[in-house]
């Protein structure tokens, strides 16, 4: 029997959806919204399921980004995911994945660079960030917790060799460029947060039996 998983990421102005059937990514869509998460999410999910000749009853799990991210984006994505799970009366599992883990999962491992700073936009010239280390052939979180910082403050915490990847705006590109060759900045394609990676991370959790309780799962908001 096919295990089908829907991944939903509305953590920032980038919305991304993916559909995973067993180990095959059968659909994925990523776009920039102008604050229209509520209007765009449900029709996009419906269209993706129909395109894959699937329906909510076919889903084994729904994965959603936990944050950090925008208050509105996270609330809408998590509310939608919980609604699908609760409507299934226990048939669909819920899995929450930190937003920055999804960013990290999609980034490369440059030769000689074993540290990563993953970032997403936090508004007002700031980013949410977390540090990772390359271990066991993947980017793994360090003991340092995620934090919010302006680009100048973040730059002061970067000591190379290090990769910086994710949502990096023009101000960030200019500030990071001044740090020299020890800091490598991901390009736009590499830094795009894709729900396909969210789906893969959630699939690992599902296989290990690590699912979340819809009654207690809550977004990660940074202050």
What this model shows, in words?
The N and C termini lie far apart (44 Å). This protein has helices at 37-51, 71-87, 99-105, 151-156, 170-177, 188-191, 195-207, and strands at 4-9, 14-21, 24-32, 59-65, 93-97, 115-123, 126-135, 138-141, 147-150, 162-166, 183-185. Helix 1 (37-51) packs across helix 2. With 223 residues, it is an alpha/beta fold. Strands 6, 7, 8, 9, 10 and 11 form a 6-stranded mixed β-sheet that branches.
Q: How do the helices and strands line up, and which of them pair or pack?
A:
Layout: E1 4-9, E2 14-21, E3 24-32, H1 37-51, E4 59-65, H2 71-87, E5 93-97, H3 99-105, E6 115-123, E7 126-135, E8 138-141, E9 147-150, H4 151-156, E10 162-166, H5 170-177, E11 183-185, H6 188-191, H7 195-207
Parallel strand pairs: 1-4, 4-5, 6-10, 10-11
Antiparallel strand pairs: 1-2, 2-3, 6-7, 7-8, 7-9
Considering DSSP H and I runs of 4 or more, what fraction of the residues is helical? 25-40%
Q: What is the overall pLDDT average?
A: 96
The coarse overall form would be globular
Radius of gyration: 17 Å
In the CATH classification, which architecture of the largest domain applies?
A: 2-Layer Sandwich
Low-pLDDT residue spans: none
Terminal CA distance reads: 44 Å
CATH class of the largest domain: Alpha Beta
Oligomer: single chain
What's the main sheet like? 6 strands, mixed
CATH superfamily of the largest domain: ATPase, nucleotide binding domain
The CATH topology of the largest domain turns out to be: Nucleotidyltransferase, domain 5
Q: Strand percentage, roughly?
A: 25-35%
**SSE sequence, one letter per element:** EEEHEHEHEEEEHEHEHH
Tally of individual helices: 7
Q: Could you say how many structural domains there are in total?
A: 2
Structural class: alpha/beta
Could you tell me the number of beta strands?
A: 11
């Amino acid at each position: 029997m096919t295990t089908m998983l829907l991944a939903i990421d509305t953590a920032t102005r980038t919305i991304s959806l993916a559909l995973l059937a067993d180990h095959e990514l059968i659909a994925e869509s990523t776009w920039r919204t102008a604050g229209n998460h509520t209007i765009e999410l449900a029709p996009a999910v419906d269209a993706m399921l129909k395109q894959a000749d699937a329906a909510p009853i076919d889903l084994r799990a729904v994965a959603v980004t936990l944050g950090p991210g925008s208050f509105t984006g996270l609330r809408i994505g998590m509310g939608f995911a919980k609604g699908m799970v609760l409507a299934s009366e226990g048939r669909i599992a819920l899995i929450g994945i930190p937003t920055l883990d999804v960013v990290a999962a999609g980034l490369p491992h440059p030769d000689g660079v074993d540290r990563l700073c993953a970032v997403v936009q936090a508004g007002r010239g700031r980013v949410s960030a977390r540090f990772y280390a390359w271990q066991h052939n993947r980017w793994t979180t360090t003991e340092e917790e995620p934090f919010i910082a302006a680009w100048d403050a973040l730059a002061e915490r970067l000591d190379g060799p290090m990769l910086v990847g994710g949502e990096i705006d023009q101000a960030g590109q200019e500030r990071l460029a001044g740090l020299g060759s020890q800091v490598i900045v991901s390009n736009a394609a590499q830094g795009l947060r894709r729900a396909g990676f969210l789906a893969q991370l959630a699939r690992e959790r599902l296989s290990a039996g690590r699912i979340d309780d819809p009654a207690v799962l809550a977004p990660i908001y940074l202050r």
